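Re: the request from the purification team.
They wanted to know what the chain is likely to look like in 3D before they choose a buffer screen. I agreed to run a prediction and write the result into the notebook, where they can find it.
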Amino acid sequence: MPDTSTDRSSPAAPATEAPDPGRAEAFADRFLNALNESALCLMVSVGHRTGLLDAMAGGPPATSRELAERAGLDERYVREWLGAVTTAGVVETDGEGRFWLPSEHAAFLTRDATPENMAVFAQYVAVLGGVEDEIVDCFRSGGGVDYGQYDRFHQVMAEDSAQTVLSSLEEHILPLVPDLPERLESGIRVLDAGCGRGRALRWMAQRYPRSEFVGVDLSEEAIGVARRRADEEGLPNVDFRVRDLSDFGDTAEPDAFDLVTTFDAVHDQARPLSLLRGIARTLRDGGAYLMQDIRAESQVAGNLDHPIGPFLYTISCMHCMSVSLAQGGDGLGAMWGREKALQYLEEAGFGRVEIHRLDHDFQNSYYVARP
């Protein structure tokens, strides 16, 4: 793919000038590549969900029939899938009907690769494509798409969270707040706002049985899953509740929690500033707020070199912003950025804010805030 970074930052050519043939050809080549890569994302998502990528990892070269038997799938679909991922250079073939997944590729595409499994993120392409008609309608008439219309979004988010949060909670994330692991061991009260299916909170509840955990989320489906999993795991110290946090600034219980966490959740709230004000209100003296959110700048010009900028803006447009607007909300969007995050935290009443970056996580920033 040609390097177009200088083109992106330079002013557009005046409409009266003839297009530069070289630049036009470079863009056409780039877009053709984008079509192939987006198709590959769909096939990688299918390979992840069906277990095909896992079935190929570490195994000997195999025919489509052998792979279908290994994964318990229909051979004809496996054969066509192999055509897509092989022509994309992900899977290799000997030209005689046998295929294999190189170990260098398996390291980033299989469940054994966690927390580096990029196939998890490929699922977003299909999930968001499922609401394209609704998003197009919103472009024409405004408004947003309700949470309930996103099939599998919370399931994919739970997998995403397992990689970005669960794998790093104990060693990297919780220690960002001084003495927090020790306080959790002794027993404190914790709120996770916008908890989704509650994987992070359930992990903490299991790891720190003397502490009490409360998770709240707007999605009844997500909270239902969280409750079932907590019951199955025998966690009496965690409570999951369905709640709209739009009025949290006024209704949050004062001085109720020693720690509040949000993991990639603030920006898609209907009233993010109200949520943050409620968090400041509900913290006890000496308490802390730990917020994980997308690492970005608040202006597009500051994100031209972001490694996954187009991907994150697309998720924002087709989910984060839209679900907020569907509630009559602010539509802040995933790429609200560092400057606006600091502004909102200050307006919410947080006087001390630290921003941390973890070496293994280029996608997120971690804010530790205190009133």
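For the purification team: The first strand starts at residue 92 and ends at 93.
Please add any questions underneath this entry.
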